Amino acid sequence: MEKIEIKIPENVTAQLDRLDLSVEGPNGKVSKRFQYPGLLLHSTENSIIIERSSETKKTIAMTGTFRSHILNMFHGVTAGWTYELDILYAHFPMQVSVDQNSVIIDNFLGERHPRKTKIHGETTVSIDGEKVLVTGPDIEAVGQTAGSIEQLTTIKDKDPRVFQDGIYITKKPVRGEA
């Protein structure tokens, strides 16, 4: 039976309720369910312990996955996650705006009806000229929102060498960078 101990950073609180881990810090709160046969989570006052009772390849691999998810949660509530996207257009000037919990793109390739996508979780989207910043404490929600915005402007029925208009992810976050 192997144990991996992950220290809880300062000014972060972690609460384990059976399979659900909730982490709260200065940037927000992230919750995630950790369930896999042969793996258990325990918490102490200043650490989270992953306990492995099985030695199969999949269980060993899932131990590393659990560890990465927990470290991502800690990073998210302390430093946060940020995706940068660029707005590019050559044919029609598109307008990108944020309305409550959705992103709206008007005049994409001259279309009359706006394209819309949802903002996931506690993610915030800010638009500064030709840049879009997607930030938040949960890397999965931030990544899903950024990916949804990028996919919203995919062009299917035109030559991609000519029509390169769209919103593209230009910088992804890396754990360890501030």
Structure commentary:
- Helices cover 20% and strands 41% of the residues.
- The protein is an alpha+beta fold.
- A hairpin with a 3-residue loop joins strand 5 (39-43) and strand 6 (47-52).
- The chain starts with a strand and ends in a 7-residue tail after the last strand.
- The mean pLDDT is 91.
Number of separate strands: 13
Q: For the largest beta sheet, what order do the strands appear in spatially? A: 11-12-7-13
Mean pLDDT: 91
Q: Which secondary-structure class do the elements indicate?
A: alpha+beta
Shape: elongated
Based on CA atoms alone, the radius of gyration comes out at 20 Å
What is the number of helical segments per DSSP (H or I, 4+ residues)?
Answer: 2
Uncertain stretches of 5 or more adjacent residues: none
Q: What series of H and E elements makes up the topology?
A: EEEEEEHEEEEEEHE
- Which percent range describes the beta-strand content? 35-45%
The main β sheet shows up as: 4 strands, antiparallel
Give the helix proportion (percent range): 10-25%
Cα distance spanning the termini: 35 Å
Topology:
Blueprint: E1 2-7, E2 13-17, E3 20-25, E4 28-33, E5 39-43, E6 47-52, H1 57-78, E7 81-88, E8 95-99, E9 102-106, E10 115-118, E11 124-128, E12 131-136, H2 139-152, E13 166-171
Antiparallel strand pairs: 1-6, 2-3, 3-4, 5-6, 7-12, 7-13, 8-9, 9-10, 11-12
Key attributes of the depicted protein:
four-stranded antiparallel sheet, elongated, alpha+beta, three-stranded antiparallel sheet, 2 helices, 178 residues, single chain, 20% helix
